[in-house]
Amino acid sequence: MEITWYGTAALLMSSGGYHLLFDPFFPLNRELDCCREEDFRQAGAIMLTHGHFDHAADLAKITAAHPVPVYCSETIKKALLDDGVPARLLNTVVPGEELALGPFQVKILRGRHIKFNLPLILQTLFLNPRLATHFGNLRKIAGSMRRYPAGQVLIYQIRVEGKTIMHMGSLNIDPEEDYPRRAEVLTFPYQGRSDLDRYSMPLLRKLQPASILLHHFDDTFPPISRPINLKPLQKKMSRFFPEIKIIAQYRQPIAL
Question: Which secondary structure element, helix H or strand E, spans residue 206, and what is its range?
Fold first, then answer.
C-alpha cells in the first residue's frame, strides 16, 4: 500500500495494481512541479471530498484525457455536468454509503469545511501584497468559485491491506459523525486559518491517529493560497502528541 501526495488535496492511493485518486487539480502556480497530467493516468477511479474549485474544477480536463468513474456529492455532480463531464462517469455518494473499489473498501462520512478566521480573511483579501502580481489568477479563481460551491463535504474512511486511512479534504469534522479513532493514517489538510497549530489540537485529540499525512499547505493557487510554516504544528505536537508521526512528503510514494 502506497500514498502519494501531489499538492493541495490530491492524493493517489495504490494497492495491488489498483489506484484510487482523490481531489486532482492543475495548479495556477507554474513555479510548482505538481499535478502533471501523467500523474493521473493510473487512476481506476476518482473521489472528490467537496466541490471547491481547487478540488473539482479541473475534472472536465482530467476525465477527457482519462475517462474513469468519479464519485462525489450531488452538488458537485451538477457542477461537473455543467462543465461537460459525461454523466456516465459521475456517481453520487452520500454519508453512510460503502463502496468496494478494487482492493479498497471505502465508507463515506460526513465532514465540514474549515471556517476561515478573520485574520486570515483580512490578510488574504486586503493586506496581501501578491494581489497585484497574481491578479490574473484572482480573476480565474473568482469565476471558478461561483461555478463550484462546496456542497456536502465528505470524509473518506478507506480500509485496505488491514489498514485504515481517513482522507480529509478540509480541516473540520461534523460533531454528529462517528469517526474511527487510531487510523494508521489521517490525511490532514493544513490550510485555511491563521491559527492552524492551535486549531488542530482538538481534532487530533478526538481522532487519535497513529500518523498524519500533511497536505494542502502548499502555494498552488496564489494569491489566495500561501505556503504554511509547519514548525508551530510540529512544536505543539511534540509537546501534546509525541506518539503521532508527522508525514510531509511531496510527490514521493509513502509505503504503509
Answer: helix 196-207
Single-letter code of the amino acid located at 54: D
What secondary structure letter does DSSP report for 21?
E
The grid coordinates of residue 186 equal 489521517
For residue 88, give the DSSP letter: G
pLDDT digits (tens, 9 = 90+) for 189-211: 999 999 999 999 999 999 999 99
**Measured on CA atoms in the order 215, 221, 224, 229, is the torsion positive or negative?**
positive
Q: What is the DSSP string of 135-158?
A: HHHHHHHHHHHHH----S-EEEEE
The domain defined by 2-255 folds into Metallo-beta-lactamase; Chain A (3.60.15)
Q: What is the pTM of this model?
A: 0.95
Task: Give the span between the Cα atoms of 211 and 200, in whole angstroms.
Answer: 14
Length of the chain: 256
For the chain, the domains span: 2-255
pLDDT, tens only, 78-135: 999 999 999 999 999 999 999 999 999 999 999 999 999 999 999 999 999 999 999 8
Rounded Cα gap, residues 221 and 29, in angstroms: 6
H or E element that contains 91 = strand 90-92
Q: Summarize pLDDT for 18-55 with one digit per residue, the tens.
A: 999 999 998 888 787 777 788 888 999 999 999 999 99
